Amino acid sequence: MIVEGNVLPVDRANVDTDQIIPAFLLTGITSTGLGVHLFKGMTGGPDLLAAHPDASIVVTRENFGCGSSREHAAWALADRGFRAVVAPSFARIFQENAYNNGVAPVVVDAAEIDTLLAAPALRIDLENETLQIRHPELVEGRTLKFSLDPLRKRFLLEGGYLEFLANKRDAVRSWLNRDRVRPG
Amino acid sequence: MSQSLFEKVWDAHVVEQLPGGNALLFVDRIVAHEITTPQGALEIEQRYGDELFDKSRIVAMNDHVSPAKDTETAIQAKVLRQWAKRHGITLYDIGDNGICHVIAPERGHIEPGMTVICGDSHTCTLGAFGAFALGIGTTVQTGAMLAGCVVLERPKLMRVTVNGRLGHGATAKDLALYVISTLTFKGATGYAIEYRGEAIDALSMDERMTLCNMAVEAGGTTAMIAPDETTFSYLRGRENQPKGEAFETNVASWRALRADPDARYDRELTLDVSTLRPMVSWGTNPGESVPLDGRVPADADAKSLEYMDLAPGDALRGLPVDQAFIGSCTNSRLADLRAAGEVLRGRKVSVPTIITPGSQAVKRAAEKEGLHDVFQDAGALWTHSSCGPCLGMSMGVVAPGSRCISSSNRNFPGRMGAGARVHLASPAVVAASAILGRIASPEELGPIGSLEKVGAERLR
Question: Under CATH, which architecture does the A2-158 domain have?
Fold first, then answer.
């Protein structure tokens, strides 16, 4: 699967999930329609989004998605049309949430981020785990490699985390009945 | 083969190895609150016939905004309430509820050796019991409600040895801030931390929960402390725990839950806390913390400085504050309230001060000791239990540009309100700062009770 799109340059480190979507907006009981709240907790966030109305790939610095476990952060990104976040590192919980919501957490070397922040658009091949800078007329020859978790890549591309687990229920029951030992 | 505490708990829960270092890991306890549970409960109802894997492993509470503040949060609470009732799930609700990470252990739902998940990043708090406890998103929680398991990549292991004894007004909160400032805000990402050492052995359960609570602020998956007599005493006789011989049989097996002598770790950190003094954060993440007598570092992050309206070299002590908050899953237990009470007794606050107990049971216990009178005589607001001002979601929102000294866990931009500036500290430091209207340590107020022991259940 290819994700091609314009870059939203979020030139800061440690963008926590309170900045991605503040807690006072977590009052719903569904995962839909949260895109309107994206980056409302970030100083200058809404203006940045307005300046890049067609962006579908976030490029940012280290430790993106730190803080609260709220999946609303991934829901808001996905609802707003974002398909990937490119950063040198992610917080664990956000990374899991991103995989489960069709938002690819793409880890690249920190030294590449300045260049990628300045890029107009990117072309990300999720299947082959490669990333290129795209200009209106051409795709740059230089290709960055990244790697996705082999299991979560499946959830990312096809969805189905819940279905995967639902299909494990019998195995879990038999493990409980047969194989479980107390820790210690 | 020698194993760490983490490995013993992890291995006992692996149902199946999965590709990429992932495992299908069995979950003993699911803690479910009203902000992140309804979406999954509704999904299981719609897609999977409302069938839960094992409802007896779930415990629920309305805690983040309770009582509800508006129609939307009332609906969240109602959905959780109806779901719990429909399935016969234990629910802690208005009048008898509390913050998930306070009430779950308080009511005896957390045991050594368990795996615990909750849709809240501070679930690592419960590692204080020698459980593997971690925060997860709604989808992962929903999967556990549906199939009893999570898909999880096994974290690396970091052992943090804490030598010496806390003194000089330094508390578990100061130790937590010290650890995070040493590791940095993301330094433990991908790691499970095991704490050990003289200082850890001496901590009460309330203090251990404070320390483990903030592991996620260094990016850690969890933090764990091997169970010992302190743990067993906390659990013995507690609600939802077996009594008598059955309990002692459990204790006998829990004693094995400690690292073997030559267990291996991916990373080691050794600290000495004998000279540790109270800490305070200056920036916009908890790693940006220094001793209260310290200054904003010369190489401080420019965006943090701008948000906090500070400059390199600025002193923290003496910085005027506009508001104070004591509460949150970090510091809202009885030991914390006692520590604040020691400072506030017979004194008056000079800025708006909110004190929010972590559970209604903590509230009642504090009131039996007269702490509500101490707080209210000092001019502070003594509220019902909830997550409260910590996350700017309901009551006590801090105004833009206002500075709040807080016993909570996050000083992120906008966390306690848009544009609000938060300084993290221990309950005793928050209390002293509330009195003086500026960041201050209790010793500035002269001799105070038994401050040497502040923050500890040893005050009993």
Answer: Alpha-Beta Barrel (3.20)
* Sign of the alpha-carbon dihedral angle for B216, B137, B336, B425: positive
Domain chopping of chain A, boundaries: 2-158
Predicted complex ipTM: 0.97
Residue with token string 């259940």: B457
The pair of structure tokens assigned to B186 is 């993301």
Instruction: Using alpha carbons, list the distances in angstroms from residue B95 to B70, B80, B83.
Output: 18, 16, 19
Q: What is the DSSP letter of A64?
A: B
Give the pTM: 0.96
pLDDT at B448 over 70: no
Interchain CB distance below 8 Å, B186 and A89: yes
Q: Is B15 on the interface with A (CB under 8 A)?
A: yes
B329 touches B362 (CB < 8 A): no
Q: Cβ A62–B151 below 8 Å, yes or no?
A: no
Domains B5-270 and B296-459 share a fold: yes
C-beta atoms of B219 and A63 within 8 A: yes
Superfamily for the B5-270 domain: Aconitase, domain 3 (3.30.499.10)
Q: Is the peptide bond before B67 cis (omega within 30 degrees of 0)?
A: yes
Tokens 């992140």 sit at which residue?
A: B36
Mean model confidence pLDDT for chain B = 96
A178: contact with B, CB 8 A cutoff: no
Domain coordinates of chain B in residue numbers?
Answer: 5-270, 296-459
Specify whether the CB–CB gap between B271 and B160 falls below 8 A.
Answer: yes
Domain B296-459 in CATH 3.90.226.10? The answer is: no
- Identify the residue whose tokens are 């070299």: B313
pLDDT at B151: 98
The pLDDT tens digits for B11-57 are: 999 999 999 999 999 999 999 999 999 999 999 999 999 999 999 99
Positions in chain A short of pLDDT 70? 182-184
Question: Within a 10 A sphere around the Cβ of A114, how many other Cβ atoms?
Answer: 11
Residue B35 identity: I
Q: Is the pLDDT of residue B363 over 90?
A: yes
Greatest Cα-to-Cα distance within chain B, rounded to the nearest angstrom: 64
